Amino acid sequence: METSLHSSIKRWYARPGDRLEAMMEGYIIDILRDDLLIEIQTKNFSAISRKLYKLLKSHRIRLVYPIPKEKYIVKISPYDGSILSRRKSPKHGRLIDIFDELIRIPAIINEDNFMFEALFIKEEDITCQDGKGSWRRRGISIVDRKLTDVFESVQFACKDDFYIFLPDNLSYPFTNKDYARCFGCTISKARKVTYCLKKMGIIAEKGRIRDGILYCVK
After folding, report:
1. What is the DSSP letter of 163?
2. Which of 14, 23, 32, 102 is least surrounded, with the fewest CB atoms within 10 Å of its CB?
3. Statement: residue 55 has pLDDT above 90
4. Whole-prediction pTM value?
5. Is the pLDDT score of 141 beyond 90?
6. Distance, CA of 49 to CA of 112 (rounded, Å)
7. Is residue 138 classed as helix, strand or coil in its secondary structure?
């Protein structure tokens, strides 16, 4: 089922002459713009990996991934849908968050016909305490996600564009702990970044110390 967020981003991207929900080699494409296929994926890149690899053999594809720079949590009644509360989330999305999903298909960056775009947005998460949500959310379901604004986008046309994730103050060789300290992220996030950059052919393992694997620029 298409979320309001996906539908709104699709309409925001669309230009005169674009074809929406176009069929291409047995797949539905969000936006067909001349010879460019634009796919919007809000989560779970694994679900479209086969589709992307097949279409990349003969088509240019831009994969758009929205990152909530600002997010509001709206709680609605499970009985009549009325708004019970609205609050701003303390979380702010960062560009490094793309690796939460890219970790599922990191090598695709090396495909000649592939482009990636991170879209920074403001969104509303519509939640409802209906008992159907996960135990982590104490039974609260995310009913829908809505786009309220678009701030900016960052495009990656090739793997060289990912060198921005190797900051100037990072000393080589480095561990995931070094990277996390330098980039101001968790070690878990650092592991995702180094895994992806290694699969892209940007960095390589150079040994191991007590703190973990050592990485250097390939």
Report:
1. G
2. 23
3. yes
4. 0.92
5. no
6. 16
7. coil
H/E element holding 152?
A: strand 141-156
- H or E element, residue 146: strand 141-156
- Structure tokens given for 5: 């967020």
Which residue has 């008992």 as its token pair? 131
**Cα dist. 19→28, 47, 91, 194, 211 in Å?**
11, 23, 35, 37, 51
Q: Nearest CA to 30 among 9, 56, 16, 49?
A: 9
Say how far apart CA 183 and CA 70 lie, in whole Å.
21
- DSSP class of residue 91 equals -
Taking residue 123's Cβ as centre, other Cβ atoms within 10 Å add up to: 24
Bridge partners (DSSP) listed for residue 141: 128
**Cis upstream peptide for 173 (omega within 30°):** yes
- Position 137, amino acid: R
Task: Give the pairing of strands 212-217 and 141-156.
Answer: unpaired
pLDDT for 136: 61
* Fold topology of 165-218: Arc Repressor Mutant, subunit A (1.10.10)
pLDDT band at 132; cut points 50, 70, 90: low
- Record the tokens describing residue 195, joined without a space: 């895994």
- pLDDT exceeds 60 at position 133: no
